[in-house]
Amino acid sequence: MSDPSLTRRRLLTGGALAAPALLVGCDRLGRAPSFRSFLELGETISYRVHRLLGSDALAREYTEAEMSPDFRTNGNTSGSTEAWQRHAANGFANWRLSVGGLVDQPLQLSLADLRSRPSRTQITRHDCVEGWSAIGQWTGAPLGEILGEAGLRPEARYIVFRCADTFGFRPYYESIDLVDAFHPQTLLAYGMNGGDLPEGHGAPLRLRVERQLGYKHAKFIMEVEAVESLGDIGNGRGGYWEDVGFYEWYAGI
Ligand SMILES: Nc1nc2c(c(=O)[nH]1)N[C@H]1C(S)=C(S)[C@@H](COP(=O)(O)O)O[C@H]1N2
Ligand SMILES: [Mo]
């Protein structure tokens, strides 16, 4: 197997034999105690190995020639709240992203505001837990820049994304830690494959968090919130599928 990502994937999942040895003596790295309440063992290992391998390690990027001719959608393909539907009918002209929680300066950002911030374009592979992958190009504002502008308070430890869609009556939400939040490839993406973000892919704004599986990439984002703990949100496991389907919170690829 010459593909290094496959080797790494084996280390992180099934073939994690070597990992416990790596972890000896590294207790201070993972802020572990509070995670133990909701991270399973394999997930804890994957989380810590990622952090040991380098918190700035980049996900692989691809060339335009490698882009998938067809990038399927998955999960909800539109927002379901009244507010989102009103915004969609109006081309999202009055839509605002709210950035709040444990920040010094809460923000309300229009799409034009987001486009006026530093931007990044990247071609990456999306891996869904259901077993399909697709390579696409994403353009957006690095989340770290926006959080920097809002000014995170010292107590902030996670970033929560609240979405405009529901399954039944349960709103979709997701969360990541600050290492992923400030990773250079983590984007609030408003563009895909050279155009605006299509509705089915999460218009007007979705997350790209390239070192984790598809369900972490929250679509139809309305709110970004900095919090100290995930315990009070949903069922307390940090995301819709984590709460409902017991998916891992740290879905490292
Ligand atoms: N708000 C929201 N975000 C979501 C989902 C969803 O149903 N609602 N589905 C997730 C899953 S499982 C995947 S694989 C990707 C699919 O992204 P795509 O529709 O752009 O392919 O979005 C993720 N983000
Ligand atoms: Mo997925």
Task: Give an overview of the whole structure.
This protein is α+β, with helices and mostly antiparallel strands. The chain has a single domain (8-244), classed as Oxidoreductase, molybdopterin-binding domain (Sulfite Oxidase, Chain A, domain 2), CATH 3.90.420. Helices cover 25% and strands 25% of the residues. The chain contains nine helices and ten strands. The strands form two sheets. A five-stranded mixed sheet has the order 2-1-10-5-6. Strands 3, 4, 7, 8 and 9 form a five-stranded antiparallel sheet that branches. Strand 7 (187-192) and strand 8 form a beta hairpin. It starts with a helix and ends in a 9-residue tail after the last helix. Mean pLDDT is 88; it is low at 1-34. Bound molecules: the ligand Nc1nc2c(c(=O)[nH]1)N[C@H]1C(S)=C(S)[C@@H](COP(=O)(O)O)O[C@H]1N2 and molybdenum atom.
